Amino acid sequence: MWMYLGLLAALFLGLHNLCKKHAVQGNEVFPVLLGTISAGFLLLLPFYIGSVFYPEYMTSIQFYIDDIPWKTHGFIVVKSAIMASSWVLAYQALKHLPITIVTPIRSAGPFFTFIGAITIYQEKPNLWQWLGFFLIIFSVLLYSRIGKKEGIHFTRNKWIFAIIGATFLGASSGLYDKFLIQKLSLNPQTLQFWFCFYTILILLIILSINWFPYAKKRKAFTWRWSIPLVGILLQIADYFYFKALQDPEALIMLLSAIKRSQIIIAVVIGGIIFKEQNKRKKLVPLAGIMCGVFLILYS
């Protein structure tokens, strides 16, 4: 069952990435990010209010947000800091790079998760899983050659380093999620609600330094319908992902790989919508990534 939940998470993540590209294209990144997280928080806020005043009903529909100790709040703050850093880097990169370049690099995330799953959680891969992960990495390298044809030199473009950093931090957060869900026994909605709350606080601090004081930057921001939609789609995807992680048999390295199937939506549909270059050539490494995911599932 957890694999199917992972595929549902991938579906909503793919739609989330398309909306995110639309939201940040030619726009100020920080307020867009704050808007998306705020939208996700507002989506979850009724569940928190319901948990305070109608706990029995919220428990019956499995959306009760638990009371948690301050120590657990501290663990969630750490996750918020990791993901806020990852998103800031990723949104900046997405603003300056084609989605058909950004998304495949992000799909290298399972490789970092794979290493962490072996060293931290002692998850034991087999030969097919090794082949699958290395096929994903090789396919991402192929994208670098295609990217050069679009004037994107991977060794000299700072936004490439930004998206690589975002990918590493995102993978670290994925490993941390297993600890939060399985070791601390947090349910998805509790983790999501407090994660959004603390992430908003972190972003407000960043914006108070880098955005609010500058009138020129404030005027450069454009509100778009895709901004709240990004946050809503992300929370739906995270809910299915965290529900999958609640299964004691779920392997974080496989879940991470399954989520990469979102790139079908991002590369194929996104390439058409945003009219990006070399779409056919990008289908070759895309096929390699999908074969890598298939090998992991087949194993």
Automatic annotation (TrEMBL):
It comes from the Bacteria. Pfam families: EamA. The keyword Membrane applies. Keywords: Membrane, Transmembrane, Transmembrane helix. InterPro entries: EamA_dom, EmrE-like. The chain crosses the membrane at residues 29-54, 75-94, 127-147, 159-176, 191-213, 225-244, 250-274. GO terms for cellular component: membrane. Residues 2-144, 158-297 form the EamA domain. This is Putative membrane protein. It comes from Tenacibaculum adriaticum. The lineage of its organism: Bacteria, Pseudomonadati, Bacteroidota, Flavobacteriia, Flavobacteriales.
